[in-house]
């Protein structure tokens, strides 16, 4: 490397202009972007997790006619949803299954004997004009059959158990489960249909 005219650095193969003012602007923008990311992260931690938790685990209770048992939210509604799934946020150092079982104990005093892990389900937030609009969230999903024991349980105050057609739940056309679109609901429907057929044979 050799130095040429002021403001220039000459390499054997490449020559470029060293612009001190451009470097300063770059560093300013870089710092501004990092700061913005920090603000967004803090906002996500302090606010976003209240409305759309980043790490959640839920369970779908189903019967052999492809109906789902869900929550009638009432005063527990967070984003205008009428219904919700049983489950909730995954706490630090807690597995998804531990979270689901803990939530079911808190909400229903119920510990299912059969709890199948389905996988990660995705949902896209549909809130035009909101900073959340278009963002994708995910959760750990478990499946469990509706049992007589489950039907006899009592829900938390201001919530009730209700059974709805599975198709209505997964389509969420009227945003009854909140302003979200279940992205991989078609795969869930196929998988759950296979499970139900197997259960019927048993």
Automatic annotation (TrEMBL):
Pfam families: NUDIX
SUPFAM superfamilies: Nudix (SSF55811)
Domain Nudix hydrolase: 53-202
The entry's keywords: Hydrolase
Gene3D superfamilies documented for this protein: Nucleoside Triphosphate Pyrophosphohydrolase
Organism (species): Candidatus Woesebacteria bacterium GW2011_GWB1_38_8
GO molecular-function term, one example from the UniProt record: hydrolase activity
Protein known as: NUDIX hydrolase
Top-level taxonomic group: Bacteria
């Amino acid at each position: 490397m050799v130095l040429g005219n002021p403001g220039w650095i000459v390499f054997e193969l490449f020559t470029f202009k060293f612009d001190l003012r451009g470097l300063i602007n770059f560093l300013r923008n870089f710092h501004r972007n990092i700061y913005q990311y920090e603000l967004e992260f803090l906002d996500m931690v302090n606010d976003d997790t209240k409305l759309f938790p980043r790490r959640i685990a839920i369970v779908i209770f189903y019967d052999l006619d492809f109906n789902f048992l869900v929550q009638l939210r009432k005063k527990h509604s967070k984003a205008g949803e009428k219904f919700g799934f049983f489950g909730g946020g995954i706490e630090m150092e807690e597995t998804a299954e531990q979270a689901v079982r803990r939530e079911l104990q808190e909400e229903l005093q119920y510990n299912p004997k059969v709890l199948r892990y389905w996988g990660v389900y995705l949902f896209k937030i549909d809130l035009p004009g909101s900073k959340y609009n278009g963002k994708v969230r995910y959760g750990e999903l478990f499946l469990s059959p509706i049992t007589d024991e489950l039907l006899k349980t009592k829900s938390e105050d201001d919530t009730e158990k209700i059974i709805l057609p599975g198709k209505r739940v997964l389509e969420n056309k009227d945003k009854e489960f909140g302003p979200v679109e279940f992205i991989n609901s078609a795969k869930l429907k196929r998988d759950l249909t296979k499970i139900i057929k197997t259960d019927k044979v048993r």
